[in-house]
Amino acid sequence: MVQLPPTLLDAVHERVLDGLDAAAPREEIARRVVAYLRNTSETTVSVEEDGTTFVITGDIPAMWLRDSAAQLTPLLRLVVAEVGAAEDRAVLVGLLSGLLRRQWQYLVIDPYANAFNRAPDASHWDSDDTNLDTPWAWERKFELDSLSYGPDLAWRLWTATGDTSWADEKFVPAARAILETVRTEQHHEERSAYYFRRADCPAQDTLARDGKGSLTAPNGLVWAGFRPSDDACELGYNIPGNHFLALALERLGDLLEHVAGQAPEAAEARRLAGEIREALQRHGLVDGPDGSPIWAYEIDGRGNHVVLDDANVPSLLGLPYLECVDADDPVYLATRAAVLSPHNPYFYSGEHLAGIGSPHTPAGHVWPIAKNVEGLTCGDEDEKRAVLEQLIRTDGGTGMMHEGVHVDDPSVFTRAWFSWSNSMFCELALDLAGVHREMAARV
């Protein structure tokens, strides 16, 4: 695994201390940020013989495309804010570039898989029946975020540093695989060969209709079999996933044009992004609890929708965090109010916690990921600090962030530690300390 430079971790500690006001538990927050960065690098990150970066989720020996990018995103914040010495930040850029090169390899192999093995050894979570069998895939649940996180991270890295070492010989083939998959899944019923079936499992771990998922009608959005939680979509068009995919395609267009010199593919990425954005406006809005428009969580193009939000990102709550919408957008604010209330069936409130959970974990469990996103999107420093303090108090005495925590008993949780959740704590703490991730675009 990878050890971050001690001088960098010292600089992080001092930067967080300096950036927090006296009302915050400054030393504890700074200590945890350093501990979580170290834990992520030393337990989940490895540099492979080919120079690429392989990142496991922590307690599962496979690399999720979504999770791996999210786990390393705090490193990009440090690069953007010029925390530490230049040579230390160069180490971080190398890890991020290596992760992207690894992701391109996987997307070329199979753009429908959500998680991959370090080597083609056919390791897997469960025995699944699907239309492509590759020994590289740990699991083949098709999720839109698998196509989105890589291009988005590459764009952020490029705009922050000018680095293009991630644009190797696999980048353009991976981009083409993304574009082809998007075009196909805009017409899932007519064009897609994808199916996913798993026997003897909960309904959320397999797809209905013999593996094709619930019936949808084409409307410009992109179909997905599974949510960011790895649970099956109730309806086929996941709205937050389509929001993030549209942004990622726009950014992929920038990369294809200005880095790879592929003008036709760049134009196609932007065309598809435009179609998705138009479809979101036409079909993704529903009446909220007070009659004002809010974003649905999923629709099917046949007149059906569900109003909820899930803790996992991309989420409706996290749309401003992903830079898909403005935090003060009226539709977002109405959506935020709805999903942070009992109108969301996965909003839980108890003695110690109130926030968004997931059907992926037991009822009554709030996810620290969602609490951190709540803080990152609120715009109020006192609220951000309150979230961090609440998460510190509800770690069950482990010193680590979990997947889900029971609202009435913090000693009851899922996953003793969850690397993605630790990284989200780092993001909120760094944000509160003024280590922001904004950067000027190069296009």
TrEMBL record:
InterPro entries: 6-hairpin_glycosidase_sf, 6hp_glycosidase-like_sf, GH125. Gene3D superfamilies: 1.50.10.10. Signal peptide: none annotated. It comes from the Bacteria. This is Meiotically up-regulated gene 157 (Mug157) protein.
